[in-house]
Amino acid sequence: MDTDSLQDVATSLATTIRETLRTELTSAWLPIQLGAVIASALIALAVAALLRRRFDLTSATMGWSPYLRKVARVLANNVPVLVFILVNTICRAGIQTWAEHPRTYILHIANNLAIAWVVIAILACLIRNTFINRVVAVAAWTIAALSIVGLLDNTVAALDSRALVIGGLRVTPLLVIKTTVLLLVALWIGSAISNFLDRRLQAAPELTPSVQVLLGKLIRIAVMTVAVVIVLSAVGIDLSVLAVFGGAVGVGIGFGLQKIVSNFVSGLILLADKSIKPGDVIAVGDRAGRVQTMGARYTSVDARDGREYLIPNEDLVTQRVVNWSYSSNLVRVDVKFNATYATDPRKTQTTAVAAVLEVPRVLKRPAPACHVIAFGSTSIEYELWFWIEDPMAGVTNVRSEVLLALWDAFEREGVAIPKPGATRVILEQAT
User: Fold this and answer.
1) Where are the beta strands (DSSP E) in 110-266?
2) What does the angle CA 261 – CA 310 – CA 298 come to, to the nearest 5 degrees?
3) Are 351 and 337 contacting, i.e. CB atoms less than 8 angstroms apart?
4) Cβ–Cβ under 8 Å, residues 102 and 96
């Protein structure tokens, strides 16, 4: 549309507004309608304050489903608007009934705007994402308000009057607004569908954790892609004109996004070959812990000390990774200790094995074993081997339990542990 056409649209819009205002402002009914609107608003605020003091929403909605409670909360927050609609409707009906040749245009507009506000608030509350919720609510109410006052067609024409042509694509402010709003709504719907399907996959016991995560990611990618394609087609964008943009994205990936793409592909590889899956206990370098989640860019590893390591997926593919639960959950734990030469080594071994079997997490099969590994200058050195099948519950804690069990057993059976003071006496005598 050229400049003359744009000017015509603007002139038409200004004329419509001017004629509407002239009609209402020169009417004797203007102060009456404004007074009725103000009175309805004051009555609504007073009634709403009274209802809120006498009504406990939390106790009344106890036991309701989350969505019903959310709708009830929205209605409670909009009690003044609901009361305003009721009072304003009564005023308008009274004026139309008792007055001769009444004008209630402003009352009609105010009532419709209030109704649109409540309806949009109820529908928007179903969207959990705060940002998308606000965008959809503002966009919907703006469209409703323009339609109610009769300015929607002229506003749409004005937004569609200026365009920028890029590679055969006509980009207008209207196109940008429509595409943005529809994309946000479509991506929200796609995310909700993906989350629902992901929960169904997590509840399928016949699927391994890695397959569940892999299928969930593939489904999310497919749903989001379909949502974007549907939106672009709905707003009239020819997908073939996006070839140039796709080429630019490809160049960007080649130069600046290699790591992001590499981490994403590495994550898919890890899930496909099942080398690492949620719940595994792994160690990468000096970082060890339980795999919590496997994201598109990184894997979250819980170190059980309040920290979570976010390890890039590429590192899990290219570096050496110790997976304690790859093919089996059985993990062997070693505990070293010393005993004096005054105690029979065979008695020490028997006592140690019996003590470790008293710890609940220690397995009886494979059986624990205690070995003499060295004859030290002041004591005999031992190494105790035992097995656990729940490394995700922690290794340090079970090692502590075993050491305490050894302490109690040695005290009970008379197995002497070298003390630092005794060691110093022996060394001094030797000197």
Assistant:
1) 164-166, 169-171
2) 25
3) no
4) yes
- Give the type of residue at 168: G
Sign, CA torsion 209/210/215/220: positive
| SS3 category, 163 | coil
Q: What pLDDT does 427 receive?
A: 40
Pairing of strands 308-312, 298-302: antiparallel
**Which H or E element spans position 20?**
helix 3-25
Residue 231 near residue 183 (C-beta atoms within 8 A): yes
Helix (H, G, I), strand (E, B) or coil at 332: strand
What 3-state class would DSSP assign to 364?
Answer: coil
**Alpha helices (H) along 274-384:** 313-318, 345-356
Q: What is the DSSP secondary structure assignment for residue 328, as one 8-state letter?
A: -
The domain at 331-430 falls in which architecture? Answer: 2-Layer Sandwich (3.30)
**Over the stretch 269-300, which tens digit does the pLDDT of each residue have?**
887 777 888 888 888 877 788 888 887 788 88
pLDDT per residue over 356-395, tens digit each?
999 999 999 899 999 999 998 889 999 999 999 887 777 8
- Residue 308 vs residues 292, 300, 311: alpha-carbon distances, Å: 9, 6, 9
Confidence of residue 429 (pLDDT cuts 50, 70, 90): very low
Q: Output the six-digit token pair for 61.
A: 């909605």
CATH number of 261-323: 2.30.30.60
Cα gap 288→301, rounded to integer Å: 7
Please classify residue 160 by burial: count the beta carbons closer than 10 Å to its beta carbon, then call 0-12 exposed, 13-18 middle and 19+ buried: middle
Which segments of the chain belong to CATH 1.10.287? Answer: 169-256
- Reading phi first (left if > 0) and then psi (alpha if -120 to 50, else beta), residue 371 is in beta
Q: Which residues contact 76 (CB under 8 A, 6 or more apart)?
A: 52, 57
DSSP symbol at 374: E
Q: How many CB atoms lie within 10 A of CB 377?
A: 8
Tokens 């496997």 identify what position?
294
Residue intervals of the chain classified under CATH 3.30.70.100 are 331-430
Among 413, 397, 396, CA closest to 339: 413
Which residue, chain included where needed, has tokens 């909700």? Answer: 192
Q: Is 120 helix (H, G, I), strand (E, B) or coil?
A: helix
Residue 253 phi/psi, 5-degree rounding, is -65, -40
With respect to CATH, is domain 169-256 assigned 3.40.1350?
Answer: no
Which regions of the chain carry the CATH code 2.30.30.60?
261-323
Distance CA 388, CA 397 (A): 12
The tokens describing 232, both together, are 């672009």
